Amino acid sequence: MRLLKWACLTLLGIGFLATPAWAGTVLRPSALLAKPESYQSQIVRVTGIVANHKLRRTGAHKCVQYFTMKDEAAAITAVHGASCAGAKNALRNRDIVTVEALFDWAPGKSGSLKVHSILSKVAPSAQ
Question: What domains sit in the chain, N to C, each tagged with a CATH number?
Answer without folding.
Answer: 25-122 (2.40.50.140)
